[in-house]
Amino acid sequence: MAREDEYDYLFKVVLIGDSGVGKSNLLSRFTRNEFNLESKSTIGVEFATRSIQVDKKTIKAQIWDTAGQERYRAITSAYYRGAVGALLVYDISKHTTYENVERWLKELRDHADANIVISLVGNKSDLRHLRSVPSDEAKSFSEKNGISFIETSALDSTNVEQAFQTILTEIYRIVSQRPMPESTGTQINGGAGSSHIPIRLPPTNPVSDSKQNTSCCS
């Protein structure tokens, strides 16, 4: 079993979307297999890591989560910097969170690298009796915008693993097939013992399963 500091690729993936759609619980479910019913809105930034295997390569995912409220937009640029993947999350039971997806997508494309891999995630699929966003509508939107789509439930774990595995595998396929120019800002770290050319992300202090709760306005 590889040590935590041994990996072939380090991918930064960001979670975006309105506050309260379940971004923090998607993060904790994937990285720690935990769910908090009383989860409160994230203040500042939190990230956690988890390693997976793809084609016998160790992929270390650094998943970032931040609050969705407008008043935290000051951290936008730093949050997106170096990200190679993004999960754009909405709540299937709250149509307003879906209506804001287009704005989030625009913000993402304004601030992130042009080649970032994006997946639209309809979370809280366990609330099917309260559904206000038809799956077909969201799927049509994702196809129109050239992004993937999946529905998840952080509560009962439905498709959470698949959502992260899919986007990380897609990033790996792209990165492994062609060298990414250093000027893109989407550089991937080679870990200890890696045979790949070391490519750097901006310094993020990627401590295993750690949290960084930092106020944006301090």
Automatic annotation (TrEMBL):
Keywords: GTP-binding, Lipoprotein, Membrane, Nucleotide-binding, Prenylation. Residues 206-218 have a biased composition (Polar residues). One of its GO terms (molecular function) is GTPase activity. It is found in: Recycling endosome membrane. It is a lipid-anchor. Gene3D superfamilies: P-loop containing nucleotide triphosphate hydrolases. Belongs to the small GTPase superfamily. Rab family. This is Uncharacterized protein. It comes from Rotaria magnacalcarata.
